[in-house]
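Can anyone check this?
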Amino acid sequence: MRILLRSSVFGATLAVLLFAGCAQTPISPTPASQPQAASKPAAPPQVVAAKTAFAPMYTAAHAWASDVVVLRMTAKELPGFKNSAGMAAQWEAVFAAPSLRQYRVFTYSITNIPPDTFKGVDAGLAMPWAGATRDAMPVDLGEFNIDSDAAYKAAAADAAEWLKKNPDKPLSTFEMGDTYRFQTPVWYVVWGTKKSGYATYVDASSGKVMKHS
């Protein structure tokens, strides 16, 4: 009887200890109950170089007309953003379709600004096109090698002395196109105005400064 009693007491004591040990074991939260990491805020849109904008615009233009050619590409500004060193918040490109005798203006914007500006590519209405002129010739894309940031760097280096003397003159024109005056397409970069400013032409094929005034 004593042996059975001790065995019963020992068994009861062991059960209490085991239960107590289990009760003190912390319960790990299930994945669903764990707090989720806070998502990082989206980075603000950044100004982009010309070729970044040109690729999607050309794709959209080519879908409109398979024989499309580009006549001009121009840096534009958007409220709240500062164009800098050949990078822009919006780029505008004029594409023409010889087979349709039409042209369209396409834009690429880095953000939405209601009611007229839409992020990404936007296309204007097709307009009549009389064909290439001496001042607006189709750009040979095989010679469009120099991106806008590199063109700006070359132009700024050429205009460095003038810019030091005229720090208040902002960049007023920054575009790429082809005319009868040059053998290759050029970047046309202007600070100030035509009457009171500095203009530089940068070869869009080689990156060399071709002329300034």
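Reply from J.R.: I decoded it. Residues 2-24 form the longest helix (23 residues).
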